[in-house]
Design brief:
The complex is a heterodimer of chains A (162) and B (415).
Chain A: E1 4-10, H1 17-20, H2 31-35, H3 46-49, E2 55-57, H4 70-77, E3 82-85, H5 90-99, E4 103-105, H6 107-112, E5 118-122, E6 127-130, E7 135-138, H7 144-151, H8 155-161
Parallel strand pairs in A: 1-2, 2-3, 3-4
Antiparallel strand pairs in A: 1-5, 5-6, 6-7
Chain B: H1 5-13, E1 24-28, E2 31-35, H2 38-49, E3 60-63, H3 73-88, E4 93-95, H4 103-109, E5 118-121, E6 135-138, H5 141-150, E7 152-156, E8 160-166, H6 175-186, E9 195-199, H7 208-216, E10 225-228, H8 232-238, E11 259-264, E12 271-273, E13 281-283, E14 294-297, H9 299-302, H10 305-315, E15 325-328, H11 333-341, H12 344-351, E16 354-355, E17 376-379, E18 395-398, H13 401-410
Helix pairs in contact in B: 2-5, 6-7, 10-12, 10-13
Classes of the chains: A alpha/beta (162), B alpha/beta (415).
Chain lengths: 162, 415
C-alpha cells in the first residue's frame, strides 16, 4: 500500500461516482486518460492540483451510486494515497479493497481535518496524524480477511495465489 | 437464532447451516452479470490475471445495453472486446444489439434469474432481482472477473431492515412512488450495508413490475440488496420463463431485524425526487411550478410493459407540450414488440414523442437525450445526481411513468 503523506482535498456527504468519474468518459479504456477527468464534475481544478500521496477526506456515504470500478481506479491513478470518510457506499468500499485503494472510516478525522491540512497515515495501526493541527485520530482497522486481500495485492492476485 | 431471507440464501450458498450479520463468507454464484461498460474492465483483469476458463458458461450474462447501439468509436471497441470474450468462452447469455434489452429488465424476462438464487452483477442496479426472492447485488468489475473465474464471491452478511407493507396503492401511484417515498424517509444511506426485506399483507397487491421497480432502487438507499417474499405473483411470473428448479426461502419467524418500518401503501401519494439526490422527495401536491424541457420514460426502473401502458393511457389523443422533448425507451425487444402490437407506439408518435430501441442511453448521460446547461428533465430513471444526464448545470427530477407522461403534456411537473 502506498505511503500516505500529503495535502487534503476535502468534500462533503454523498459524493457519488457520477461526479468522481462522469459516465460520459466510461468509453475510455486507458487509465491515465480516464484519470484526467477524476472529480471533474465536483471539483474541476482537482486534477491540476493533486499530488502523489495526497488524501481525500469526505463525509457520509462516499462513492454512492453506480458500481463503476472506474471511480476508485481514477482516484488511485490520480495519486491519491487514501480516502478517509465517515462512511463509504458499499460497492465503492469493496471495489477499493479489490483494487488496492486504501480507504479508512473515521468520523473524527472527517470532522476535524480541513482542506489543505497535511496528514500522514499509518496503515498498520489505522492512526491518522494531522501534521498541520498537531492532532491524531484513530480509524477502524480492516478485518483480517480484508487485510489478507490487500496484502496479496488485491482480490484477483489473492485468488490466483490460492 | 432465526435468519432473514437474505441470510438464509447466503448460508445455503456458502454451505453453512447458519450465518449471522457481520460474518464474512464466500458464496457460490448462480449468475454473474456484466454490461458493455463494466465488462471490458473485468475482461482485462480476467486476462491479466491469467485465468484460462470461466466457471460455467451458462451462468454468465453479458448485456450490451449502456452505450449501444454504439454511440461512438470507443464504445464500439468496448463491445468488440465483450463480443470476442463471449465467443472465446462460448458464453450462452451474450446479448448484443438486436437481442439485447436493458439488463435488469432482460434477465428476469428471460428467466435467467429466479427465486432463491445468489447473483452478482457489475452494475449497481443488479439488486433488481430481489423482486423475485433472490439475493442479488451490485459489485465492481474485479468481483465480476473473480466471479466468472471461480463462481464465487465474498460477502459480509448484512443486517436487515424489515418493511411491513399493508394496503393497496391508489390510482396513479406505482412502485416508483413507493420506493421514492421510502428513500425520502430513510435517506440515501438509510440502509447502508443492509438488506431491505419487503413483506406483509400488502405485497400481494403489488404486481411484479412494481416489485422490480422497488427492488431496483434499494441501492439508492445504500442497501446491499432489496428482497421480496415469494408468493403466487412471483411464481406466476417465473412460470414459462424459468426452466430449472429453484428454491423458495421464507424468513424465520424469529429472524432478527435492526429496524421495522410499516408502510401503508394506500397512503402513498405520487412522488417526485428533486435534484440532486433521490432522497429529496416531494409529493405531487408539494411540487409547485416547475417548467421542464425533456421527459424520459424508460430505464431498468420503469421501462417495462406496465410503465408503457400507463404512459400510453395518459398520452392517448394528447400532444406533447411545445417546449418539451419526450423520449420513450421500451426496456427490451419483447416490451418494444408488445408496444407495437398494442398500438402504444402509434399513440406515442402521434403525441409527438420519439421512441428508441432499448438502451440505458440518457439515464447515465451516455447518449439519446443529453441535457444542456439549465435544462430540466422529468425521468423515470433512478438517479438525479449532478451531471447525471448531461451538463453539470442540468437537472433531473425522478418520478414514475404517470407523472412523467402527464408532465410531458403539461410542460411542467404535474399529474
Amino acid at each position: 500500500m502506498k505511503q500516505a503523506k500529503g495535502k487534503v482535498h476535502k468534500y462533503g456527504d454523498n459524493v457519488d461516482t457520477d461526479v468522481i468519474i462522469p459516465a460520459r468518459y466510461l468509453n475510455i479504456a486507458d487509465k491515465k486518460e480516464l484519470a484526467a477527468h477524476c472529480m471533474e464534475d465536483i471539483d474541476p481544478v482537482f486534477i491540476g492540483k493533486v499530488k502523489e500521496g495526497d488524501v481525500i477526506v469526505a463525509g457520509y456515504n462516499f462513492g454512492c451510486g453506480s458500481s463503476r470500478e472506474h471511480a476508485p481506479m481514477v482516484i488511485k491513478e490520480s495519486g491519491i494515497a487514501c480516502v478517509i470518510a465517515k462512511t463509504f457506499a458499499r460497492i465503492f468500499y469493496r471495489n477499493s479493497i479489490n483494487i488496492g485503494l486504501a480507504i479508512l472510516e473515521c468520523e473524527e478525522a472527517s470532522e476535524r481535518i480541513e482542506a489543505g491540512d497535511e496528514v500522514s497515515i499509518n496503515f498498520d495501526t489505522g492512526e491518522i496524524a494531522n501534521i498541520t493541527k498537531g492532532e491524531t485520530y484513530q480509524a477502524q482497522p480492516f478485518p483480517d480477511f480484508i487485510k489478507k486481500i490487500i496484502a496479496k495485492g488485491g482480490l484477483l492476485n489473492s485468488i490466483k495465489q490460492n | 437464532m432465526g435468519m432473514t431471507m437474505t441470510q438464509k440464501i447466503l448460508a445455503a450458498h456458502a454451505g453453512l447451516d447458519e450465518v449471522k450479520a457481520g460474518q464474512l463468507i464466500r458464496a457460490d454464484l448462480d449468475m454473474v452479470l456484466g454490461n458493455d461498460i463494466t465488462s471490458p474492465v473485468a475482461i482485462r483483469e480476467f486476462e491479466n490475471t491469467g485465468f484460462e476458463e470461466v466457471f460455467d458458461k451458462s451462468k454468465i450474462s453479458l448485456v450490451m445495453d449502456h452505450f449501444t447501439p454504439n454511440k461512438d468509436i470507443k464504445a464500439a471497441e468496448q463491445c468488440v472486446q465483450c463480443r470476442s470474450f463471449a465467443r472465446r468462452f462460448d458464453i450462452d447469455n451474450f446479448y448484443d444489439v438486436g437481442s439485447m434489452g436493458i439488463e435488469h429488465a432482460l434477465l428476469p424476462e428471460k428467466g435467467l434469474v429466479a427465486a432463491g438464487e445468489c447473483i452478482i452483477g457489475a452494475d449497481s442496479h443488479t439488486c433488481t432481482y430481489g423482486a423475485l426472492g433472490a439475493f442479488s447485488t451490485g459489485v465492481g468489475s474485479t468481483d465480476m472477473a473473480a466471479g466468472m473465474a471461480t463462481g464465487k464471491a465474498w460477502f459480509k452478511v448484512p443486517e436487515a431492515i424489515r418493511f411491513n407493507l399493508t394496503g393497496k396503492l391508489q390510482k396513479n401511484v406505482g412502485g416508483k412512488d413507493v420506493i421514492l417515498h421510502i428513500i425520502g424517509m430513510i435517506g440515501v444511506d438509510g440502509a447502508l450495508y443492509k438488506s431491505m426485506e419487503f413483506m406483509g399483507d400488502g405485497v400481494k397487491n403489488l404486481p411484479m413490475d412494481d416489485r422490480l421497480c422497488i427492488a431496483n432502487m434499494a441501492i439508492e438507499a445504500g442497501a446491499k440488496n432489496g428482497i421480496f417474499i415469494v408468493d403466487a405473483e412471483t411464481e406466476n411470473y417465473m412460470k414459462g420463463r424459468v426452466h430449472r428448479p429453484y428454491k423458495i426461502y421464507s424468513p424465520d419467524d424469529d429472524a432478527v431485524y435492526c429496524q421495522t418500518i410499516d408502510i401503508d401503501l394506500s397512503a402513498i401519494k405520487p412522488t417526485v425526487a428533486f435534484p440532486h439526490l433521490p432522497e429529496n422527495t416531494r409529493t405531487i401536491d408539494e411540487v409547485g411550478d416547475v417548467p421542464i424541457h425533456q421527459v424520459v420514460i424508460g430505464s431498468c426502473t420503469n421501462g417495462r410493459l406496465s410503465d408503457m401502458a400507463i404512459a400510453a393511457d395518459i398520452l392517448r389523443g394528447k400532444k406533447i407540450h411545445k417546449d418539451v422533448r419526450a423520449i420513450i425507451i421500451p426496456a427490451t425487444q419483447e416490451v418494444y414488440k408488445e408496444c407495437i402490437k398494442r398500438g402504444y407506439l402509434e399513440i406515442f408518435i402521434d403525441a409527438g414523442c420519439v421512441v428508441s430501441t432499448p438502451t440505458c442511453g440518457p439515464c447515465l448521460g451516455g447518449h439519446m437525450g443529453i441535457l444542456a446547461a439549465g435544462e430540466r428533465c422529468v425521468a423515470t430513471t433512478n438517479r438525479n445526481f449532478v451531471g447525471r444526464m448531461g451538463h453539470v448545470d442540468s437537472e433531473v427530477y425522478l418520478a414514475g411513468p404517470a407523472i412523467a407522461a402527464a408532465s410531458a403534456v403539461a410542460g411542467k411537473i404535474s399529474i
